[in-house]
Amino acid sequence: MLKVRDEEDGRSLLGQQLASQVGRGEGGEPGGVSERAREVVRGGEDLAELLWRHIGQVAGAELVPRVVEFFGSAFLRGTTVFGLVELVNGLGIGVFDDGRAELGSFGLRNLFRAARAGGDGVAFRHVAYQELLAAEYLRSPLRRQAAAAIAHPRLTEQVREFLYRRSQAAGVAGPGTGMANDCVVPAGVYPVGPSHHLMLRQIGRPVRVDRFPVTVGRYKRFLGAVSERGPGEWDHPAMPAGFTHQPWQDRLRVPSYYQDAAYEQYPAIAVNWWSAYAFARFESKRLPTSLEWEAAARGFAGRLFPWGDDVDLSVVNCADSWSDHPLITYEAWREELDRGRLREALPGPVGAHPGNVSPFGVREMAGNVWEWTATVLEDLNEAVICGGSFRQPLPGGAGLVQGGLPVAGREQRGRVPLRRGCVTWWAADRMFPSLR
Q1: Domains in the chain with CATH codes
Q2: Which residues contact 99 (CB under 8 A, 6 or more apart)?
Q3: Helix %, strand %, coil % for the chain, to 5?
Q4: Fewer CB within 10 Å, N- or C-terminus of the chain?
């Protein structure tokens, strides 16, 4: 079986084979390799484009929507082998030449191979074809809703990548594509979770998320209000006795972090979960859940990083950017840490990286500082944190964009920041806080 990426230099044998097939006429008849196909292979262009063009050539524009509906949804249900009767029921008898339901008459046969002894079942020549159709199926909000109703939809990392690539190719403006600049996360179904355990999860109502992390200046205004009025109206009812909302001074590498005006636009750090909760209430907001946070960071296409699928150390404050080279493994990061090469690493201003922006316009969701969320594991007294930090390598921080599952004790003050608040968006012109 050909893999999506086989060669040491990153080229794909499947891609080269497809380029040859795409260069033939519709249905894959011999006719030579097109110059466009050669350019695709030479330039390492998106495999999704090659696959999609080949499917279009074989199926024809009129049949493609039915192909997406039938085979895309089938993949999500875990079906990859199809009997002839299933093909007739799903695509219609017209997909067979002369109305004969035989493999040799199957109009899409150039995309398929026999999958059962006796020739009564077929499967795609390469699973990547059906993964692309599943991704195309998921581009529709209504289809994502239907897929989310499947008990355990089959979502692979290749499906997620194709979903992102197809969404980019189609343009990210328009309903259901997840590109906006108002920091409102629409209601809908989102792909979430790490690459080995991707899921589809529903957000029931639109949520407006703060554009930037909570800054030192904003937090100091909260501390001023607490000093004047006391914290009672904002505190969580279960907050343990003896806690204050003052940052933990001993954990600040810059002792004057909260006093020096130069840090007013830096993220508020060294506070615990209880303080994050109270601050959000102070601003008539609430902490986002880990699901809301991840949806805000990744969008409907489930991108790897807030800005897309490609690594860009110029737009993120992380250990790799301080080291000037990628820290791919835990051992490499640990070596940098042990040798003191990250001793200068610090949080940066919340607006320092304009390119670190999510599909909904939310900034700095990868790197710089960890973020508290409202998702709490009560039995462990821990809360989910997201985003990564200036001391973490990008793969680790970005992986947390995908998963939202790391936790920290709610009393932890370290350098876990307050992070941003959010409000549930109930109407187009008004916001009502949802304080939970």
Answers
A1: 13-131 (no CATH), 216-424 (3.90.1580.10)
A2: 93
A3: 40, 10, 50
A4: N
Q: Which amino acid is at 291?
A: L
Write down the pLDDT at residue 325.
80
- Report pLDDT digits (tens) over 190-223: 999 998 899 999 999 999 999 999 999 999 999 9
CA pair distance 417, 385, nearest whole angstrom: 10
- The span from the CA of 163 to the CA of 165, in Å, is 6
First-to-final CA distance of the chain: 51
Number of residues that this document lists for the chain: 436
Cα–Cα dist 252/265, whole Å: 16
pLDDT at 432: 24
Whether the CB-CB separation of 396 and 336 falls below 8 Å is answered with no
Q: Are 425 and 205 in contact (CB under 8 A)?
A: yes
Please choose, from the candidates 228, 241, 243, 215, the residue with its C-alpha nearest in 3D space to the C-alpha of residue 348: 215
Cβ distance 349 to 317 under 8 Å?
Answer: no
- Which DSSP state fits 70? I
Q: Residue 267's closest CA among 416, 61, 54, 149?
A: 416
Reported as a pLDDT band with limits 50, 70 and 90, residue 344 is confident
Residue with tokens 């009672």: 232
* Residue of 275, 298, 299 whose CA lies nearest to 287: 275
